[in-house]
Amino acid sequence: MSAFMKFADLLLALAKLLTILIVAAMVISVLIGVFFRFVVPVPMAWPPEAARFLMVAVTMIGASVAVRQLDHVGITLLVDLLPRRLALALYAAGSALIVVFLLVFIWYSARLTLEMGPRQVSSSLGLNMVVAYAAMPIGGVMMLVQQLAAAVEAVRRSRAGGSPFAAPNAPAQSAV
């Protein structure tokens, strides 16, 4: 389990780095598009397309970071009132459903990438669509790894007396 968690941590660091680089590339693409459209009145076709492809990539890869850090929206008002074992069982059930969804998503996005991607070329960039579609299965695999790592951490938090739903650095909640 320790080797898996080290791999998940390494993948998390890679996802954070890729997210930064992709957002930077997206900003540059948008700035180039704005410059050539409004400063030099010769609009270019490729910057918006590049920005769209980069937006998909940053969404897929950035979602894996959010999965691991429990940054997605969650309302735990009722589950926080449950006994710890029942809360952990609900977390495990939800996590299992997410894993099933991610496996289906990875399967179908990989099929799309490998079957349709080679037959298509993007209109402005002239890029083989395998490159654009690849963000989906790659992001799905990254999310799957991080979901499994988050589940391991949730079990550890629960065994230590905490809530499986609480992020490790979440601010303490006051009882009102």
Task: Describe the model.
By secondary structure, the protein is mainly alpha-helical. It has one domain. Helix content is 70%, strand content 0%. It is built from five helices and no strands. The protein has helices spanning 2-39, 46-68, 84-115, 129-133, 135-159. The longest helix has 38 residues, at 2-39. The model has no long low-confidence stretch (mean pLDDT 91).
Topology:
Blueprint: H1 2-39, H2 46-68, H3 84-115, H4 129-133, H5 135-159
Separation, N- and C-terminal Cα atoms: 39 Å
Series of secondary-structure elements, N-terminal to C-terminal: HHHHH
Mean pLDDT: 91
Helical residue percent band: 55-70%
The assigned structural class equals: mainly alpha
Number of domains: 1
**Beta content:** under 5%
Number of helices: 5
What does the main sheet amount to?
none
Coarse morphology: elongated
Q: Catalogue the unreliable spans.
A: none
Tell me the radius of gyration.
20 Å
Write a compact overview of the structure shown.
With 176 residues, this protein is mainly alpha-helical.
Keywords:
5 helices; mainly alpha; 176 residues
